[in-house]
Amino acid sequence: MYPENIGHLPAERAVTIHQPAPLAPYDPAAPVAMDPYAERQPVVWVPDAYGRMVPMPKHLAPALVPATEPRDLTPLPLLDPIAQRLMGAGLGGGALAAGVGYGVGEVVSAAAGFSGGALVWLAVIVLALRAPARAITSGKGSTVNIRKAVIKRSHFHG
Predict the structure, then answer these.
(1) Measuring CA to CA, which residue among 30, 25, 34 is closest to residue 55?
(2) Residue 120: inside a domain
(3) Which regions span the lipid bilayer (predicted)?
(4) pLDDT-derived band of residue 1, with 50, 70 and 90 as boundaries?
(5) Is residue 123 situated within a structural domain?
(6) Is position 158 within any domain?
C-alpha cells in the first residue's frame, strides 16, 4: 500500500550552504556599459546594510526621514503665568463679591431697622392723635364742659 523506498531520506540528501560573495566597492574609473541618455534615470547613493554607499534609482530609494527639531530646554516657571492670572482674578473676584455682599447686607439691615422703627413711631403718633384727651391726661384735664339744663314750669292747682 505504501511505497517502501521513497528515495529522499534526510541522510541521502546533500546539504548546500549558501554564502554570498562579498561586494566589491564601486569604482567610478572602471569601464561601465553605456546606456542611452533617454533611458537613464536619476541615481542616488544610499547606505546598505554594511554601511557602504551603493547606487540606487531615485524612484526606488526610501523616503527621507525628516530631521527632528531641537527641543526648547529653557526652565519653565514654577507656576504658569496664565494660571497665576486666573487664580488672582478668582481671589479678587471673590473678595469683591464678599465686599459687595457685606455692603448690601448692611444697607438692607439698616433699611429694615429704619422702616421698623419708623413704623413704631408712626403707630404711636396715630394712636396719640386718635385717643381722647382724658386718656392722655389720666382724667385730670383743665378743660371742663358742663351742660346744665333748668326747666321751670309754673302750675297752679287751685
Answers:
(1) 25
(2) yes
(3) 110-129
(4) low
(5) yes
(6) no
Are 55 and 45 in contact by the 8 Å Cβ rule? The answer is yes
- Range 41-66 burial, b when 16+ CB lie within 10 A, else e: eeeeeeeeeeeeeeeeeeeeeeeeee
> pTM, whole model, 2 decimals?
0.27
For the chain, the domain total comes to 1
Residue 44 corresponds to which cell in the numbers above?
A: 542616488
Q: Residue 102 in contact with residue 110, Cβ under 8 Å?
A: no
**3-state class of 47 per DSSP?**
strand
> And the C-alpha cell for 109?
439691615
- Give me 89's grid cell: 482674578
Closest CA to 26 of 48, 4, 1, 5: 48
pLDDT score for 128: 83
Domain that holds residue 93: 85-133
